[in-house]
Design goal:
single chain; 120 residues; alpha+beta; Nucleotidyltransferase, domain 5; 4 strands; 44% helix; globular; RNA-binding; ribosomal protein
Length: 120
């Protein structure tokens, strides 16, 4: 039987493979959630570089948040990454949730990014 970590890696790879198949050249909005923070990047897979990034560890957010591990923090990070992506000229992305289910903090981040101007 596979370990929990192997199962998570397999799930993340499966999601990423499906996303790259339907991306049509759009950058991907990749999310990573830890027990204490949440991190997000807008990645151009064709060029292999990060176009915009945000996390709960950013100086501006860190002072205004109570904790980096709640829905309010995820929403703030989603709004911030949307602003940075729009400044970089990105409006359409594909959402890469990795091995995480679309629920709670991941869902809050996605909805805030949509409100901030990204479409996916």
């Amino acid at each position: 039987m596979a370990s929990r970590k192997e199962a998570l890696v397999r799930r993340a790879n499966r999601v990423r493979r499906q996303i790259k198949a339907v991306a049509n050249g759009r950058p991907r909005l990749s999310v990573h959630r830890s027990s204490k923070n949440i991190y997000v990047q807008v990645i151009d897979d064709v060029a292999g570089r990060t176009l915009a990034a945000a996390s709960t560890l950013d100086a501006g957010l860190r002072s205004s948040l109570k904790t980096g591990a709640d829905i309010a923090a995820a929403a703030a990070v989603g709004k911030l990454v949307a602003e940075r992506a729009v400044e970089a000229g990105v409006k359409e992305v594909v959402f890469d949730r990795g091995a995480f289910i679309y629920h709670g903090r991941i869902k809050a981040l996605a909805e805030a990014a949509r409100e901030g101007g990204l479409s996916f």
